[in-house]
């Protein structure tokens, strides 16, 4: 009975290979391709019933046309190599541009009409012609109306070359992620508790490094430092970037605390956007600012690198009615608490309860885009809308 086992093993391998083939090769009909295939079947039926040699010749030509189309499209996408590069982060509502490095590994056969995109996204990058051995850059564009982390599992390479009858698609497993930052354009009134003084002692405390204040010394450049602070003479002498460091009032450091106790939804997203707006406002004003939420603490800093780190943390925040209370590493009196309910906020210097909707816009549970005023933009180029946030 060994031959039975061998046949069963061959059948199993054939089925596994067939599933693998169709997992990364898909053929779909275009509208013209569907009509052409239906016409081919009709001609074949007429040739069989009538026995007309001319119909058999026409049927053979049409079948050859389909076979050539399938073979050429396979040659186009068969040896294409793609590398994906995602942006550091993208503000919700703005284009998320994904860069692709596309290489044709064939030595003689060029590629035509290539479309590169993500398996679960609609945006496509188009390359009309790619020479043999050539590598080009292409870009797709998508929009996300909600913040969060979008996981990229695989990308697709497809073409409808040469006749546009069928679209052949090849799937490449390339894992990755796309971070969508919350919007930063909510209008806020509260920014720093204590009026620039220690609310516990009423005195100013010096000593922390900050963007401005009494001159402290020189140090090496760090990502996020203000280019205006670069000491050009020392930089030229040492050959590495060196910046001036200043003293700053510790009480002027803004701590943003986000209370994640609540149900996910529009009000929770409003709270995240409010925290993001507080960080963006501190960044524009040149202040040091830090962030704390359950399980996440970002030490105070300044500059675009600090803002990006906080926006990245806010993109990953999840709300839960049973989440713990945020515990900042400093006295709560020096912090701004963004909360949905305002309860348990008596120990904080300032409590911000965000509104549900932006003024002049509508919020939809489905996450559809909202109208914005294109006449103004925030620091990321995000069209501004207005919303009242009660302190």
Structural summary, described in words:
- The protein is α+β, with helices and mostly antiparallel strands.
- It has helices at residues 2-24, 31-50, 53-77, 232-238, 266-284, 304-315, and strands at 25-29, 80-85, 90-91, 95-104, 111-118, 124-130, 135-143, 148-159, 166-181, 208-220, 242-248, 254-258, 289-293, 296-301, 335-338, 350-354, 389-390.
- The chain is elongated.
- It starts with a helix and ends with a strand.
- The model is unreliable at 194-211 and 359-391 (pLDDT under 50).
Distance between the termini: 82 Å
Supply Rg.
30 Å
Mean pLDDT metric: 79
Number of DSSP strand runs: 17
Order of helices and strands: HEHHEEEEEEEEEHEEHEEHEEE
Determine the number of helices (DSSP H or I, runs of at least 4 residues): 6
- Overall 3D form: elongated
The largest β sheet comes out as: 6 strands, mixed
Q: Unreliable stretches, pLDDT < 50, 5 or more residues?
A: 194-211, 359-391
Percent in strands: 25-35%
As a percent range, the share of helical residues equals 25-40%
Quickly give the structural class.
alpha+beta
């Amino acid at each position: 009975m060994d031959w039975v086992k061998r046949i069963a093993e061959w059948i199993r391998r054939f089925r596994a290979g067939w599933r693998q083939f169709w997992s990364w090769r898909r053929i779909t009909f275009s509208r013209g391709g569907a009509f052409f295939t239906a016409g081919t079947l009709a001609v074949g039926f007429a040739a069989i019933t009538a026995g007309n040699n001319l119909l058999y010749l026409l049927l053979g030509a049409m079948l050859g046309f389909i076979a050539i189309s399938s073979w050429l499209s396979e040659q186009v996408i068969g040896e294409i190599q793609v590398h994906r590069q995602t942006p550091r982060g993208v503000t919700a509502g703005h284009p998320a541009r994904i860069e692709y490095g596309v290489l044709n590994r064939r030595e003689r056969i060029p590629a035509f009409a290539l479309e590169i995109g993500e398996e679960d996204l609609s945006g496509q990058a188009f390359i009309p012609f790619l020479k043999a051995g050539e590598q080009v850059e292409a870009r797709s564009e998508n929009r996300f109306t909600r913040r969060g982390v979008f996981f990229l599992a695989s990308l697709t390479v497809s073409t409808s070359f040469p006749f546009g009858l069928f679209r052949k698609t090849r799937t490449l497993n390339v894992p990755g992620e796309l971070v969508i930052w919350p919007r930063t354009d909510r209008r806020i009134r509260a920014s720093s508790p204590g009026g620039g003084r220690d609310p516990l002692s009423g005195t100013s405390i010096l000593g922390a490094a900050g963007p401005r204040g009494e001159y402290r010394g020189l140090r090496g450049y760090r990502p996020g430092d203000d280019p205006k602070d670069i000491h050009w003479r020392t930089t030229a002498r040492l050959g590495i970037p060196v910046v001036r460091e200043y003293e700053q009032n510790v009480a002027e450091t803004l701590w943003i605390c986000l209370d994640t106790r609540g149900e996910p939804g529009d009000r929770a997203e409003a709270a995240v956007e409010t925290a993001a707006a507080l960080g963006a406002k501190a960044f524009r004003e040149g202040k040091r600012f830090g962030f704390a939420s359950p399980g996440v603490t970002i030490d105070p800093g300044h500059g675009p690198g600090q803002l990006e780190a906080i926006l990245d943390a806010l993109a990953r925040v999840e709300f839960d009615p049973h989440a713990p209370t945020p515990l900042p590493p400093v006295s709560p009196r020096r912090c701004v608490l963004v909360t949905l309910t305002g309860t348990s906020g008596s120990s904080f210097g300032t409590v911000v309860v965000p509104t549900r909707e932006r003024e002049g816009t509508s919020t939809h549970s489905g996450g559809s885009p909202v109208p914005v005023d294109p006449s103004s933009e925030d620091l990321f180029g995000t069209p501004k809308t207005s919303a009242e946030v009660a302190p």
